[in-house]
Amino acid sequence: MPAHRLPRLTSLRPFDSPGYFAVWLGALISNIGTWMETVAMGVYVTQTTGKAEWTGAVVALSFLPAVILAPVGGALADRFDRRAYAGLGALLQAALAAVLTVLAFRGQLSVSAIGVISFLNGCVSTLTYPAFSALLAELVPPEDLHLSTSLNSAQFNLGRILGPTLAAVVLQAGGPAWALLANTLSFFAVLVALWRVVPPARDPAVKREPLWDGIRRGITVARDDEDISLVLAATFFVAALVAPFIGLVPVFAIRELGQGAAATSLLVTCQGAGAVTAALGVGTLAELFGQRKLRGYSATTIAVLAGVYWLAPTLQVAAVCIFFLGANYLVLMSSLSASCQGRVPRELQARMGSLYSMVLGAGYSLGVWFQGALADRMHLRFVTIGSAAIFLALVLTTRLLKPARFENEPLAQAADVQPFSDSAH
């Protein structure tokens, strides 16, 4: 669909940038397949083991590599052709998905095999996603970076809507093997999109540092910038204390609500619907409140919404609650991600994105496993509501101690990023 025929909403402005829509659409198709696999494997592990700890552990394995490999992925993305590097990652992920597909069709699928493939897939994704994220940032002007990040989250969550719906149909009709096959084929949409796009030429004057020097400089920039440091800390805590609601959906649907695969798909779909709805309005919200105030409001309300969701007595109430929780989660996380990249020049954006991914992966893998393990020994709702309450206390304490960090940024940030740009030469 040509970009000029799309609705003229502020939030959709990045679609006017050449190549952005093609990459966005290819990623959407791939994510539909990914969510088909995620739902199928979540239901399989929960029903096979009957333990929340195993479900959380398998999810955690796909995020755990980010703790170590994310800075390496960011540095590599700032050294090589980002389009080719992202394409290599898509090929490797397709190969891993194909292994799971073959095992499923041969009746040899197991929880251990799913765990190993999840870990390897996490390694590939961690090393190559910074290149994909930075490529999207290259395709839009700097003032549209937050909108680009929100739309990228929207396509991920639109896949969360369509993927689980298709997964429920496929699981009922043919079993997990067909959902895994769909995911394998979906990666080729990314390859076609990357082949069609022409990224902007990179500045030949930018010095290419040795790999480890590049990693150290990215960490130094993040450490010395108080805004980036605070954003990364917030990312860790929301990932560890609130975000496990995503990975524990099968446990909540099956154990707490007494439902099955269809209910799991419904909850995942409703979360995605909320996120997509929020993505369409996030540009307007950012213009209305400003980036910092919007972050502060969404950080406060997400803890409340998470608590309400976990208290839901029925599937219908839970579906409504997770819709609003998913919307709030997109607004908060897209703002945090854009803040990391928006305060540095383009040659450092992949490294900032990788540090964000590292913190997100560390927090989420720890949180989803630990909450799942506690839920097997205590009541699931007690564990998850308690975690949300801890996060709310942290947010309110931060607002009290650092109120200026919840006020609007200056209209121009050039002075903030210029010193980092100069240090690159």
From TrEMBL:
SUPFAM superfamilies, alphabetized: MFS general substrate transporter (SSF103473)
PROSITE patterns, A to Z: MFS
Annotated localization: Cell membrane
InterPro entries in alphabetical order: MFS_dom (IPR020846), MFS_trans_sf (IPR036259), TM_effector (IPR010290)
Chain segments annotated as transmembrane: 20-45, 57-77, 83-105, 112-132, 177-198, 230-254, 260-282, 294-311, 317-340, 352-370, 382-401
Sorted UniProt keywords: Cell membrane, Membrane, Transmembrane, Transmembrane helix, Transport
GO MF entries: transmembrane transporter activity
UniProt name for this protein: MFS transporter
Species of origin: Corallococcus exercitus
